[in-house]
Amino acid sequence: MKKVVVVGLGYIGLPTACLIASNKIEVLGVDVNPKVINLAKKGKINLNEPDLIGLFKDVVEEGYLKVSLTPNYADVFIVCVPTPFKDGHKSDLSYVMAAINSILPYIEEDNLIIIESTCPVGTTENIRDLVFSKISNSIIKGKIYLAYCSERVIPGKILYELIYNDRIIGGINEVSSKRAKDFYNLFVKSNLYDTNSKTAEMCKLVENSYRDVNIAFANEISIICDKLGINTNELIKLANKHPRVNILKPGCGVGGHCIAVDPWFIVEKTPDLARLIKTSREVNLNKTEWVIKKIKKKAKEFEEENKSKPKIAILGLTYKPNVSDLRESPALNITKSLAQDRYPLYIIEPNILRLPKSLGIYKNVKKVELNILNKVDIIVLLVPHKEFKKINKSLIDKKIVIDMVGILLTRKAEYHRPTRG
Ligand code: SAJ
Question: pTM of the predicted model, to two decimals?
């Protein structure tokens, strides 16, 4: 193996490029964003992943990783760009297609192209047709290999999971699968399973839809329990004592760049068949709206009683516990909605330093401080960061508490039920 080009230096591309380079393979990391490239050239990265900065510095120093705005000739090209959705929850493949177009001038005989971006089923075959249609030499055409192999890593543990998670490799033909498998074997220490490209694409979508459907179940249960005056956390704990039951945790919605997006790619392809998958997406989206309504109802009651808007402490803004990632975060959307209604907000988020501009509030985030919690009227726990577990219970008993994840409340039957002490 001589050279690898990784297109897209984001959450997946950058750690992947570093990992390959750490195996003494020459890697060119490519990104169209000059900010990413300039930062990397200064020896810095914009990802909050343990161990990554050290590895990045090592591979750059040793000369195995270089970065550039444009691709170059290589043996393997890996596409790691985002696939968001556009209006109507339809997949937006413009970044993937731009990445493919950017490498086309450099494609030569014997090259392997790997798509890691999450894609609707059939995308790899479409890319094969495009690549072959652009290459005039028919001998070269037969000797270009393509495979789909999505990442499966969890933010916060990316490097570890890149090495140790099993991977599914779907070639456009057997020889493509074999070549891709040989390539991943150079830096992955886990099982590699080969299949065709459509199955590999669907596998990625199904994995994240599986999780979305199961979280939707937990979220639906939490709304029903709220109506019936049952503590959801206690209920789930008890139900999970059954040897074959494992209900996930309800929250204020589903965020992140994957689970809230990928199921739509199945719905887009087979709208009449993907009924449970679509409903689960809707249940999870609705959970966020439900939380907003719940907070605003309590706030209005307070306002009517006290003739002033309540001061609200928001605990947690990120899309899941103990990360700094705000992408598709339901907690952020809830906070935005409260900010639009001009409630005085005290945002406590131990994992970030500054509030995102989109929030329209120009103050720094607060630490978990007793004096802040003491002066607010309503405490809303949206994300169960580890720092929140130590919050004093006696203080909580004096406030109106809306606890979406059940770690603040003391009295059993009050999960999701605001208390006034
Ligand atoms: N969540 C709940 N309840 C739970 C578990 C999660 O509400 O019991 C919420 C989280 O708070 C968060 C969202 O779901 O808002 C997603 O979090 P997550 O930790 O389940 O997953 P992600 O989005 O960080 O990463 C997922 C992973 N996929 C699966 O676990 C099937 C990861 O392995 C994938 O690589 C990643 O998507 C991806 O890139 O597709």
Answer: 0.92
